[in-house]
Design goal:
By secondary structure, the chain is mainly α. The chain has six helices and no strands. Helix 1 crosses helix 4, helix 2 packs antiparallel against helix 5 and helix 2 runs parallel beside helix 6. The longest helix has 42 residues.
């Protein structure tokens, strides 16, 4: 059995693949909306240097990633340890070296990585127009508006992904998540723009 197949098998033992998928979507969504909030905040504020905007957004992206990794690892480790202890009590056996024991150690690591990397990666994608503009690359939109457009596309794609998982209309699901992002943008604009 190859390494990837073994990892898939261990994840299926604990049903962690479902948690990974859920954390990917939830925390990816968090990353997108957080970056969108920061960027809209900069749009409605006194103009700031692009390097300052990038540094603030990058700081937030790294904080989201680290928060996601550490919080998920701590909580998932506790849950997996508790579940393994209950299983050991029921079977009156030490399962540390069993498939269940391996899965209990692997799942928290993978869940933590997905939980932290999803918002970080989505945030970095949103920052691409800012980095490109800072490097002098000509863009069809001002960089902050380009970043908002990237955020909206990513939110739509997350909705499409959810639609495919739920076996419902991918277009409807994508438009629903897009509507949430647009409503968020409008709220930020209304409250931050005063």
């Amino acid at each position: 059995m190859g390494v990837l197949s073994h990892v898939r098998f261990l994840l299926s033992v604990t049903h962690s693949h479902l948690i990974l998928r859920r954390y990917f979507v939830v925390n990816g969504f968090d990353g997108v909306l957080t970056m969108m909030g920061l960027i809209i905040g900069f749009i409605v504020s006194t103009p700031a240097d692009l390097a300052v905007i990038i540094n603030v957004c990058l700081g937030a992206a790294i904080a989201l990633g680290m928060s996601g990794i550490s919080s998920a690892y701590i909580s998932e480790s506790a849950e997996r340890h508790h579940a393994l202890d209950k299983l050991e009590d029921a079977m009156i056996s030490d399962l540390q070296e069993s498939t269940h024991g391996q899965a209990a150690r692997l799942a928290p690591l993978l869940v933590a990585l997905v939980n932290g990397l999803a918002p970080l990666i989505f945030s970095l994608l949103i920052l691409m127009p800012l980095w490109l503009a800072n490097l002098g690359v000509p863009l069809p939109l001002p960089p902050l508006y380009g970043a908002i457009l990237v955020a909206l596309v990513l939110v739509f794609l997350l909705g499409v992904f959810l639609g495919r998982i739920a076996d419902i209309s991918w277009l409807r699901s994508g438009l629903q998540t897009l509507l949430v992002a647009v409503a968020t943008a409008v709220l930020i604009y209304l409250f931050a723009g005063r």
